[in-house]
Design goal:
Elements: E1 3-5, H1 11-22, E2 30-34, H2 41-45, E3 49-52, H3 58-65, E4 70-73, H4 82-96, E5 100-104, H5 118-130, E6 134-138, E7 141-142, H6 144-147, H7 150-156, E8 170-171, H8 173-185, E9 193-195
Parallel strand pairs: 1-2, 1-4, 2-3, 4-5, 5-6, 6-9, 7-8
Helix pairs in contact: 1-8, 3-4, 4-5
Length: 227
């Protein structure tokens, strides 16, 4: 069995490789693919097969997918260009005869009107039209989108965002990576889409810990007047 993890030089892809290794997948059965290979030389030192791949370079994708049985397609970070990039990966996977293509999509992709979802929706349709066996990981928000900005929140006493009174369902990248690894290792045919859900959501405009040492109460900023 050969598992190809695209985007392995990024945060999520790297964590998926680590999750597979922690589940005792032999390192030589894992292909970590990406552009900035200098970021994952340590994986190569541990026996992981490190390969150069670029979503804009169809030949590189075909080469990496040539012996792959299962591929994790981590969505590109280049919003607005992702549809074509993902199509390149889907075409390469189909040509290689990949047994399962797992794609990191977005929550509620089938009904959301969120602009960020457009590329994901187009990719899901491309997968449905491809004839390749696939599973959609409809991931939600990363908790790191907030925790990486904690110093700014504490300094200003506010969490900036446009959610209003909406709630955000979130998990850590490590949680999503564990889910991806579980799907890749499953021998059972799964649902075409697996949705990351939490029973309770986070309210971006309200933070806990008021009165604790090192914290100040958060505050809601007024909405700008309509123009």
């Amino acid at each position: 069995m050969t598992y190809v993890i695209t985007g392995a030089t990024g945060h999520l892809g790297r964590l998926v490789v680590e999750a597979l290794l922690s589940r005792d997948v032999p390192a030589d059965q894992i292909v970590a693919a990406g552009r900035a290979l200098d970021r994952i030389t340590d994986l190569a030192d541990r026996g992981v097969r490190v390969r150069a791949a670029d979503y804009n370079d169809v030949d590189s994708l075909r080469e990496v997918f040539a012996d792959a049985e299962k591929v994790l397609l981590v969505s590109s970070s280049e919003v607005g260009q992702r549809t074509g990039q993902h199509q390149n990966a889907i075409d390469a996977a189909k040509a290689a005869g990949v047994g399962l293509l797992v794609y990191t999509s977005i929550a509620n992709a089938d009904n959301t009107v969120m602009q960020l979802a457009a590329d994901h929706q187009a990719t899901e349709q491309a997968l449905a039209d491809s004839g390749v066996s696939y599973t959609l990981l409809r991931n939600s928000w990363y908790l790191e989108n907030y925790t990486d900005q904690l110093a700014t929140y504490i300094e200003h006493g506010a969490v900036l965002g446009s959610a209003g009174d909406g709630r955000v369902s979130a998990a850590t990248r490590a949680d999503y990576a564990e889910a991806a690894a579980a799907v890749l290792l499953s021998d059972r045919p799964g649902r075409p889409d697996l949705r990351a859900r939490r029973r309770r959501g986070l309210h971006p405009g309200r933070t806990g810990g008021e009165g604790q040492r090192g914290h100040r109460p958060s505050r809601r900023l007024p909405r700008p007047a309509a123009r």
